[in-house]
Design a protein that fits this description.
It is built from 3 helices and 3 strands. By secondary structure, the chain is of the alpha+beta class. The chain has one domain: 2-Layer Sandwich (Trypsin Inhibitor V, Chain A). It is globular. The chain starts with a helix and ends with a strand.
Amino acid sequence: MPRISLRLLVLPLIGLLLVGCATSTDRELPPPREGNVRDVPAFREFIAAHEPTPEQLRQVYPDITLVLPGDIATKELRMNNSRFFAKLDDEGRIVDGRFQ
């Protein structure tokens, strides 16, 4: 009897682990959006939903200048949402940032 209950316990745990392994890299990216970011809430939603890598952000927003921590950038002020200073998590995924 203990073998059956052990199997019944292990199978759901394996299923939960497999579901937990589905990361944001498994999600399909939206099509590329050309130009500057005009819809900032949609941009923020993309960041929150996908936690993209820098490469993925560049695929979806190819015209945005992405500045990563440690990159050297000039101090000019851009008012057109064309340059995004990203904040990364420990895995190198973009989790937040600001336009400047």
